[in-house]
């Protein structure tokens, strides 16, 4: 068997220098991707932010609700991209007594709307289904007025 064994002698300085240069090359390439690849994401984020900023015209909007002889308003306060407040106005004591579920139902729905900033997928119980639908329609009508 004649095997030709080759012996390679490496100096430790050469190995260290090669490792340092490989690490520096990897860091440089990573920095180039981060620096120049991030601009597309930033411009996409800026476009998305501009789209979100123009959701509503800031102000207070109302929608009237008529039940039997009682008329009251649902008032929605918005800024440029958030629903800030939803409340009943011009609600007489007679209407409060005749429709006792009106205020608690609105409070429950308003808390859900504040969290999601949307009137989609609002949940309500079967006990106050019609009251919830009536109030949700009034809120949507007010938000339609506020739409940019």
CATH class of the largest domain: Alpha Beta
CATH architecture of the largest domain: Alpha-Beta Complex
**How many individual helices?**
4
Unreliable segments (pLDDT under 50, ≥5 consecutive)?
A: none
Mean pLDDT: 85
Q: How are helices and strands ordered from N to C?
A: HEEEHHH
Report the CATH topology name of the largest domain.
Sufe protein. Chain: A
Largest sheet: 3 strands, antiparallel
Q: Report helical residue fraction.
A: 40-55%
3D structure, described in words:
- The chain is of the alpha+beta class and 148 residues long.
- It folds into two domains: 45 residues; 88 residues, Sufe protein. Chain: A, CATH 3.90.1010.
- The chain contains four helices and three strands; from the N terminus they run αβββααα.
- The protein has a three-stranded antiparallel beta sheet, with helices on one face.
- A hairpin with a 4-residue loop joins β2 and β3.
- The chain is rod-shaped, with a radius of gyration of 32 Å.
Outline the fold blueprint:
Layout lengths: L11 H42 L5 E9 L2 E9 L4 E7 L3 H6 L3 H15 L12 H18 L2
Antiparallel strand pairs: 1-2, 2-3
Helix pairs in contact: 3-4
Q: What descriptors fit this protein?
A:
148 residues; alpha+beta; Sufe protein. Chain: A; 2 domains; three-stranded antiparallel beta sheet; 17% strand; rod-shaped
């Amino acid at each position: 068997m004649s095997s030709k064994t080759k012996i390679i002698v490496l100096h430790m300085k050469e190995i260290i220098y090669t490792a340092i240069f490989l690490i520096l090359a990897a860091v440089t390439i990573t920095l180039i991707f981060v620096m120049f690849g991030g601009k597309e994401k930033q411009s996409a984020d800026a476009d998305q932010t501009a789209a979100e900023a123009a959701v509503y015209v800031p102000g207070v909007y109302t929608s009237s609700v008529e039940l039997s002889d009682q008329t009251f308003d649902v008032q929605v306060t918005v800024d440029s991209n958030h629903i800030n407040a939803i409340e009943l106005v011009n609600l007489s004591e007679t209407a409060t007594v005749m429709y006792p579920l009106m205020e608690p139902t609105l409070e429950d729905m308003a808390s859900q709307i504040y969290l999601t900033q949307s009137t989609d997928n609002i949940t309500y119980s079967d006990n106050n289904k019609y009251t919830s639908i009536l109030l949700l329609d009034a809120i949507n009508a007010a938000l339609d007025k506020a739409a940019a």
